[in-house]
Amino acid sequence: MLKIQLECVIIYINETYIYNKKVRRVFIMPRPRKEGHYVNVKLDDELYNRLTEHCDADNRTKTSVFERALVLYFEKVDREAALIEKDS
Q: Where are the beta strands (DSSP E) in the chain?
C-alpha cells in the first residue's frame, strides 16, 4: 500500500491483482477533526445566504469563517479596551 500525504489529506493507494489485471483502489482520508466546542447560532435568511455564497466562492467552511470573524472581533474589542485604559 502506498501512502501519500498532501497538505490536509492523506491518500492511500492499494494495488491488487484480480484475474491477472491490476486493480487500483484509492482511499482519501479526510483531515482529522480538531478539538473544540459546538456552538449553535440562528441566522436570518439574508445573512445565511451571504455566508453560504462567501464560503462557496472562497472554498472555505462556515466554521473557519466564524472563527476568523470572532478572532477579529475580540482583537478589536481588546484594542479599544486598551485605548480606553490608556486614556484614563
A: 2-5, 10-18, 21-29
Which residues on neighbouring strands pair with residue 16, listed in sequence order? Answer: 23
Task: Tally Cβ neighbours within 10 Å of residue 10.
Answer: 14
Q: How many CB atoms lie within 10 A of CB 70?
A: 11
Residue 21 to residues 13, 18, 65, Cα–Cα distance (Å): 16, 5, 47
Beta strands 21-29; 10-18: pairing state: antiparallel
Question: Could you read off the pLDDT of 22-36 as tens digits, one per residue?
Answer: 555 655 566 677 788
Q: Are 36 and 48 in contact (CB under 8 A)?
A: no
Residue type, 87: D
Angle among Cα 11, 65, 67 to the nearest 5 degrees reads 95
pTM given for the model: 0.58
